[in-house]
Write a structure and sequence with these properties.
With 211 residues, the protein is mainly β. The chain has three helices and 13 strands. The chain folds into two domains: 77 residues, Elongation Factor Tu (Ef-tu), domain 3 (Beta Barrel); 86 residues, Elongation Factor Tu (Ef-tu), domain 3 (Beta Barrel). It has a seven-stranded antiparallel sheet with strand order 4-3-7-1-2-6-5. A six-stranded antiparallel β-barrel has the order 8-9-12-11-10-13.
Protein backbone atom coordinates (compact mmCIF):
# COMPACT_ATOMS: atom_id res chain seq x y z
CA UNK A 1 0.00 0.00 0.00
CA UNK A 2 1.30 3.45 -0.96
CA UNK A 3 0.28 7.06 -0.37
CA UNK A 4 1.10 8.67 -3.71
CA UNK A 5 3.69 10.94 -2.10
CA UNK A 6 6.77 10.46 -4.30
CA UNK A 7 9.97 10.02 -2.29
CA UNK A 8 12.46 10.67 -5.05
CA UNK A 9 12.96 11.12 -8.76
CA UNK A 10 14.91 8.03 -9.81
CA UNK A 11 16.37 6.84 -13.08
CA UNK A 12 16.21 3.72 -15.24
CA UNK A 13 19.79 2.57 -15.78
CA UNK A 14 19.11 -0.51 -17.93
CA UNK A 15 16.27 -2.49 -19.51
CA UNK A 16 16.73 -6.16 -20.46
CA UNK A 17 14.23 -7.82 -22.80
CA UNK A 18 13.29 -11.26 -21.46
CA UNK A 19 10.82 -12.15 -24.22
CA UNK A 20 7.52 -12.16 -22.36
CA UNK A 21 8.85 -9.78 -19.70
CA UNK A 22 11.50 -7.12 -19.10
CA UNK A 23 14.00 -6.68 -16.30
CA UNK A 24 14.50 -3.10 -15.19
CA UNK A 25 17.48 -1.78 -13.27
CA UNK A 26 16.71 1.45 -11.49
CA UNK A 27 18.69 3.91 -9.40
CA UNK A 28 17.20 5.47 -6.28
CA UNK A 29 19.37 6.09 -3.21
CA UNK A 30 16.40 6.86 -0.95
CA UNK A 31 14.16 3.90 -1.76
CA UNK A 32 17.03 1.40 -1.85
CA UNK A 33 18.16 2.25 1.66
CA UNK A 34 17.44 -0.92 3.64
CA UNK A 35 15.77 -2.57 0.62
CA UNK A 36 15.66 -6.37 0.54
CA UNK A 37 14.77 -9.06 -1.96
CA UNK A 38 10.98 -9.27 -2.23
CA UNK A 39 10.29 -5.71 -1.06
CA UNK A 40 7.81 -3.58 -3.01
CA UNK A 41 8.66 -0.25 -4.63
CA UNK A 42 6.25 1.83 -6.71
CA UNK A 43 7.75 2.91 -10.05
CA UNK A 44 5.63 5.55 -11.77
CA UNK A 45 2.73 4.23 -9.73
CA UNK A 46 3.29 0.55 -10.58
CA UNK A 47 4.00 -1.74 -7.63
CA UNK A 48 7.13 -3.75 -8.49
CA UNK A 49 9.05 -6.38 -6.50
CA UNK A 50 12.76 -6.00 -5.78
CA UNK A 51 14.66 -8.93 -7.35
CA UNK A 52 18.19 -7.74 -6.63
CA UNK A 53 19.63 -4.82 -4.69
CA UNK A 54 23.16 -3.48 -4.91
CA UNK A 55 24.30 -0.07 -3.73
CA UNK A 56 21.75 2.55 -4.77
CA UNK A 57 20.26 0.39 -7.55
CA UNK A 58 17.67 -2.38 -7.65
CA UNK A 59 16.24 -4.64 -10.34
CA UNK A 60 12.63 -5.63 -10.90
CA UNK A 61 10.96 -7.96 -13.38
CA UNK A 62 7.95 -6.57 -15.25
CA UNK A 63 5.56 -9.05 -16.85
CA UNK A 64 3.98 -8.54 -20.28
CA UNK A 65 0.59 -7.81 -18.65
CA UNK A 66 2.06 -4.88 -16.76
CA UNK A 67 3.94 -3.62 -19.80
CA UNK A 68 0.72 -3.73 -21.85
CA UNK A 69 -1.45 -2.00 -19.24
CA UNK A 70 0.97 0.71 -18.13
CA UNK A 71 3.45 3.15 -19.59
CA UNK A 72 6.45 1.21 -18.28
CA UNK A 73 6.88 -0.31 -21.73
CA UNK A 74 8.13 3.01 -23.14
CA UNK A 75 10.87 3.43 -20.53
CA UNK A 76 14.51 3.09 -21.54
CA UNK A 77 17.90 3.68 -19.98
CA UNK A 78 18.02 7.30 -18.87
CA UNK A 79 14.26 7.65 -18.29
CA UNK A 80 13.35 9.44 -15.05
CA UNK A 81 10.80 7.73 -12.82
CA UNK A 82 8.84 8.46 -9.65
CA UNK A 83 9.78 6.15 -6.77
CA UNK A 84 7.99 5.42 -3.49
CA UNK A 85 8.36 2.75 -0.82
CA UNK A 86 5.25 1.20 0.77
CA UNK A 87 3.60 3.05 3.61
CA UNK A 88 4.67 1.83 7.06
CA UNK A 89 1.95 1.08 9.62
CA UNK A 90 1.50 4.04 11.95
CA UNK A 91 2.80 6.67 9.53
CA UNK A 92 0.76 9.66 8.35
CA UNK A 93 -1.25 9.13 5.16
CA UNK A 94 -0.11 12.22 3.30
CA UNK A 95 -1.88 11.48 0.00
CA UNK A 96 -4.61 8.86 -0.36
CA UNK A 97 -4.81 5.06 -0.49
CA UNK A 98 -2.79 3.92 -3.52
CA UNK A 99 -2.43 0.24 -4.41
CA UNK A 100 0.13 0.50 -7.17
CA UNK A 101 -2.27 -1.30 -9.51
CA UNK A 102 -2.60 0.76 -12.69
CA UNK A 103 -6.15 1.01 -14.06
CA UNK A 104 -5.15 2.46 -17.41
CA UNK A 105 -3.05 5.06 -19.15
CA UNK A 106 -3.77 8.60 -20.21
CA UNK A 107 -1.90 11.19 -22.25
CA UNK A 108 -0.81 14.68 -21.38
CA UNK A 109 -2.97 16.92 -23.58
CA UNK A 110 -1.74 20.36 -22.63
CA UNK A 111 0.05 22.39 -19.97
CA UNK A 112 -0.94 25.88 -18.85
CA UNK A 113 1.76 27.53 -16.74
CA UNK A 114 1.08 30.44 -14.42
CA UNK A 115 3.20 32.33 -11.93
CA UNK A 116 2.94 29.89 -9.00
CA UNK A 117 1.43 26.69 -10.37
CA UNK A 118 0.69 24.84 -13.60
CA UNK A 119 -2.54 23.29 -14.85
CA UNK A 120 -2.05 19.98 -16.69
CA UNK A 121 -4.82 18.43 -18.78
CA UNK A 122 -4.73 14.64 -19.15
CA UNK A 123 -6.87 12.34 -21.29
CA UNK A 124 -9.03 9.79 -19.50
CA UNK A 125 -10.08 6.33 -20.81
CA UNK A 126 -13.86 5.98 -21.14
CA UNK A 127 -14.08 3.11 -18.64
CA UNK A 128 -12.50 5.23 -15.89
CA UNK A 129 -14.50 8.46 -16.21
CA UNK A 130 -17.16 7.37 -13.69
CA UNK A 131 -14.54 7.12 -10.95
CA UNK A 132 -13.14 10.63 -11.42
CA UNK A 133 -14.88 13.59 -9.78
CA UNK A 134 -14.03 17.21 -9.13
CA UNK A 135 -11.97 17.57 -5.93
CA UNK A 136 -11.56 13.78 -5.81
CA UNK A 137 -8.24 11.94 -5.73
CA UNK A 138 -6.42 10.31 -8.62
CA UNK A 139 -2.93 8.86 -8.99
CA UNK A 140 -0.88 9.98 -11.99
CA UNK A 141 2.44 8.17 -12.45
CA UNK A 142 2.32 7.31 -8.76
CA UNK A 143 1.57 10.87 -7.61
CA UNK A 144 -1.49 11.50 -5.45
CA UNK A 145 -3.28 14.49 -6.99
CA UNK A 146 -6.57 16.35 -6.58
CA UNK A 147 -8.81 16.62 -9.64
CA UNK A 148 -9.55 20.24 -10.57
CA UNK A 149 -11.91 19.58 -13.49
CA UNK A 150 -13.48 16.27 -14.45
CA UNK A 151 -14.48 16.31 -18.13
CA UNK A 152 -16.15 13.63 -20.28
CA UNK A 153 -12.82 12.28 -21.52
CA UNK A 154 -10.21 14.27 -19.60
CA UNK A 155 -9.33 15.73 -16.24
CA UNK A 156 -7.07 18.51 -15.04
CA UNK A 157 -4.75 18.82 -12.06
CA UNK A 158 -3.00 21.83 -10.59
CA UNK A 159 0.69 21.30 -9.84
CA UNK A 160 2.69 23.29 -7.33
CA UNK A 161 6.42 24.00 -7.88
CA UNK A 162 7.43 21.18 -5.50
CA UNK A 163 5.56 18.60 -7.60
CA UNK A 164 7.01 20.00 -10.80
CA UNK A 165 10.55 19.95 -9.41
CA UNK A 166 10.53 16.56 -7.67
CA UNK A 167 8.44 14.32 -9.97
CA UNK A 168 8.24 13.32 -13.62
CA UNK A 169 5.24 15.59 -14.15
CA UNK A 170 7.67 18.46 -14.38
CA UNK A 171 9.15 16.73 -17.44
CA UNK A 172 6.10 15.35 -19.23
CA UNK A 173 5.08 17.03 -22.48
CA UNK A 174 1.87 16.86 -24.56
CA UNK A 175 1.61 13.38 -26.07
CA UNK A 176 3.53 11.66 -23.28
CA UNK A 177 1.74 8.70 -21.62
CA UNK A 178 1.04 8.54 -17.88
CA UNK A 179 -0.17 5.75 -15.61
CA UNK A 180 -3.54 6.27 -13.95
CA UNK A 181 -4.96 4.67 -10.83
CA UNK A 182 -8.42 5.80 -9.72
CA UNK A 183 -9.58 5.89 -6.12
CA UNK A 184 -10.08 2.26 -5.02
CA UNK A 185 -12.84 3.33 -2.60
CA UNK A 186 -14.96 4.49 -5.55
CA UNK A 187 -14.58 1.06 -7.18
CA UNK A 188 -15.60 -0.76 -4.01
CA UNK A 189 -18.65 1.49 -3.56
CA UNK A 190 -19.72 0.81 -7.15
CA UNK A 191 -19.37 -2.95 -6.66
CA UNK A 192 -21.28 -2.93 -3.35
CA UNK A 193 -24.13 -0.84 -4.74
CA UNK A 194 -24.35 -3.11 -7.78
CA UNK A 195 -24.54 -6.18 -5.57
CA UNK A 196 -27.20 -4.52 -3.42
CA UNK A 197 -29.29 -3.79 -6.51
CA UNK A 198 -28.99 -7.38 -7.72
CA UNK A 199 -30.05 -8.76 -4.34
CA UNK A 200 -33.06 -6.42 -4.18
CA UNK A 201 -34.16 -7.36 -7.68
CA UNK A 202 -34.00 -11.06 -6.73
CA UNK A 203 -36.37 -10.65 -3.74
CA UNK A 204 -40.11 -11.37 -4.34
CA UNK A 205 -42.18 -8.23 -4.79
CA UNK A 206 -39.21 -5.90 -5.21
CA UNK A 207 -39.14 -5.70 -9.00
CA UNK A 208 -39.20 -2.06 -9.96
CA UNK A 209 -38.75 -0.93 -6.38
CA UNK A 210 -36.05 1.55 -5.43
CA UNK A 211 -33.22 -0.11 -3.43
Amino acid sequence: MFTGIVEELGEVTAVENLGDASRFRLRGPVVTEGARHGDSIAVNGVCLTVVEHEGDEFTADVMAETLDRSSLGVLAAGSRVNLERPMAVGERLGGHIVQGHVDGTGEVIERKPSENWEIVKISLPADLTRYVVEKGSITVDGISLTVVEAGPDFFTVSLIPTTLDLTTLGLKQPGDPVNLEVDVIAKYVERLLGARGEQSAALPGTQGATP
